[in-house]
Amino acid sequence: MTLPRLIVGLGNPGQEYETTRHNVGFWFVDRLADQLKVNLAPQAKFFGKAARSGELWLLQPGTYMNRSGQSVAALANFYKISPAEILVVHDELDLPPGGIRLKQGGGNGGHNGLKDIQAKLGTPDFWRLRLGIGHPRTLNLAQQVADFVLHPPRREEAPDIEQALARSLLAWPRIAAGDFAGAQQQLHGKAV
């Protein structure tokens, strides 16, 4: 079993983006840092905020979403962390609000953060925790995708997204132990 050594939460830096759908990866890493009792702090050489808990690193890139790979590659290369030891947590348009999928590799679905990470690592073979935010078309909204992801979830969507974050944190012990298959079973099942 491969243990994760780097957990990356994707988002955009800056107060104006804190509550937007695109920052759901930051939200997860903030909660995981609290759970692990570590503090994320600016790390210039990694182009973001980072924290360490034993052999595990948490990272929030300080670059904008489309440059996330710069931060991820800097930390992964410095500590010789392989793509199979990286979990990227990100917002997912193709899942309804509150949907969760854990998978390794695959395409980027047009997600600029994933696209840049794949380019900088030279492979798509890292783990992804996809947290559903819905798509403006399936939610019957006239918003363009770029505008949609840069706005906070609507009141009716927020509880589902919060529940997905809570369920993902409940699966953390399995992920931390390298039991990705067990975590997938736990996360892909019906919410309780």
From TrEMBL:
Site entry: Stabilizes the basic form of H active site to accept a proton: D91
Membrane recorded as keyword: no
Gene Ontology MF, one: tRNA binding
Record keywords: Cytoplasm, Hydrolase, RNA-binding, tRNA-binding
GO biological process, one term: rescue of stalled ribosome
Pfam family, one: Pept_tRNA_hydro
Quaternary structure and partners: Monomer.
Protein name: Peptidyl-tRNA hydrolase
Lineage per the UniProt record: Bacteria, Pseudomonadati, Pseudomonadota, Betaproteobacteria, Rhodocyclales
Gene that this polypeptide is encoded by: pth
